[in-house]
Amino acid sequence: MNKGRLEAFSDGVIAIIITIMVLQLTVPAEPTLAALMPLMPVFLGYLLSFVYVAIYWNNHHHLLTVCGNASGGVLWANMHLLFWMSLIPFVTAWMGNNPAAPLPTALYGAILLLSAVACEILQVRIVAVHPDAERLREAFGRDFKGRFSPLFYLAAIGLAFVSPVISHVIYAAVALLWIVPDRRIERL
After folding, report:
1. pLDDT by residue (tens digit) across 111-145?
2. How many CB atoms lie within 10 A of CB 76?
3. CA-based R_g, the chain, Å
4. Residues forming a β-bridge with 161
């Protein structure tokens, strides 16, 4: 399959994910700043998740630039990634509505972790069908952010039961780490 269809489908799913997240923001009944304050945890959760979805979209775009044609394995790996990403609106809303609760905070981290694992699987599948797989594998091999992010997610999941605030800080720190796009593919 031509990778253009894969990119178009993925872009559509990601756009829907963002739309669902923004539609979960409720409008306050009163037109005052005080009426907005109780919504801050929900908005901050939305902001963090928007950044994560944007990071995945950006890196997904870079990753697909090296994919000539999408094999069945690439298609299924991509669907796997989109599945976990499609759960981001749910965990965002649950965590935003319960910012001090350990379980929603831990589940948010679990979805981030599973999205990261799915992205890694997609990367492996793309390398497997790439004509210059060795060179691409070498470029991906120096992936500090990709190797350590899952460890941070695991730590945050466990720490959610000690202090959800610490987990929130870890999730934000990992997002900040990924704000700078992955340039390894561009150098290749």
Report:
1. 999 999 999 999 888 888 776 666 667 667 667 78
2. 14
3. 18
4. none
CB 42 within 8 A of CB 93: yes
Q: What is the spatial distance between Cα 106 and Cα 96, in angstroms, rounded to a whole number?
A: 12
Q: Report which residue type is found at 76.
A: W
Strand pairing partners for 2? 69
Residue 148 near residue 158, CB atoms below 8 Å: no
H and E: helices and strands count for the chain: 10, 0
Within 13 A of 176's CA, how many CA atoms are on the CB side? 6
| Closest C-alpha to 74, from 124, 21, 117, 39 | 124
DSSP label at 2? B
pLDDT digits (tens, 9 = 90+) for 70-103: 788 889 999 999 999 999 999 999 999 999 999 9
Which residues are paired to 73 by β-bridges?
none
- The structure's pTM equals 0.91
